[in-house]
């Protein structure tokens, strides 16, 4: 991940009992995001502390290209498929200032 990338973090509250369906749907439609030429990658994380809370992080080449995607028909369709699972959420955006590679990555690389 290079410095200067634009990062988006979503916090999603999932309706009780719908977590597995949400995860399956997210995985099934994830290529809408990762297939975009400006997308660097995305991650789905489940809170270890709060029941029904998920975080989605996606990295983009830059903010203008993310904003262009954010208003696209593809993204609006993507959101419609996830919306039934949600009871709330928020979005935070940021620019990556620096990235330090951890020792475990260096050891694994050999």
SSE layout:
Blueprint: E1 6-14, H1 19-29, H2 31-34, E2 39-46, E3 53-60, H3 63-70, H4 73-82, E4 86-95, H5 103-109
Antiparallel strand pairs: 1-3, 1-4, 2-3
Could you explain how this protein is built, in words?
With 110 residues, the protein is α+β, with helices and mostly antiparallel strands. The protein has helices at residues 19-29, 31-34, 63-70, 73-82, 103-109, and strands spanning 6-14, 39-46, 53-60, 86-95. The chain has one domain (6-109): Alpha-Beta Plaits (2-Layer Sandwich). It has five helices and four strands. A four-stranded antiparallel sheet has the order 2-3-1-4. The longest helix is centred in the N-terminal third of the chain and has 11 residues, at 19-29. It starts with 5 loop residues before the first strand and ends with a helix. The model has no long low-confidence stretch (mean pLDDT 93).
Summarize the structure in short:
By secondary structure, the protein is α+β, with helices and mostly antiparallel strands.
Main features:
alpha+beta, 110 residues, Alpha-Beta Plaits, monooxygenase, single chain
CATH fold naming = Alpha-Beta Plaits
- Distance between termini? 19 Å
The spatial strand order of the largest sheet comes to: 2-3-1-4
| Mean model confidence by pLDDT | 93
Q: Provide the CATH top-level class.
A: Alpha Beta
Strand content: 25-35%
């Amino acid at each position: 991940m290079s410095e200067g990338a634009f990062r988006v973090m979503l916090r999603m509250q999932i309706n009780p009992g719908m977590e597995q369906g949400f995860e399956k749907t997210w995985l099934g439609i994830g290529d809408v995001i990762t297939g975009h030429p400006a997308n660097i990658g995305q991650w789905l994380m489940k809170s270890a502390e709060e029941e029904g809370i998920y975080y989605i992080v996606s990295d983009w080449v830059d903010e203008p290209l993310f904003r262009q995607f954010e208003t696209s028909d593809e993204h609006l369709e993507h959101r419609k498929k996830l919306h039934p699972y949600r009871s709330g959420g928020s979005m935070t955006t940021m620019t990556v200032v620096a990235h330090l590679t951890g020792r475990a990555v260096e050891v694994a690389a050999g």
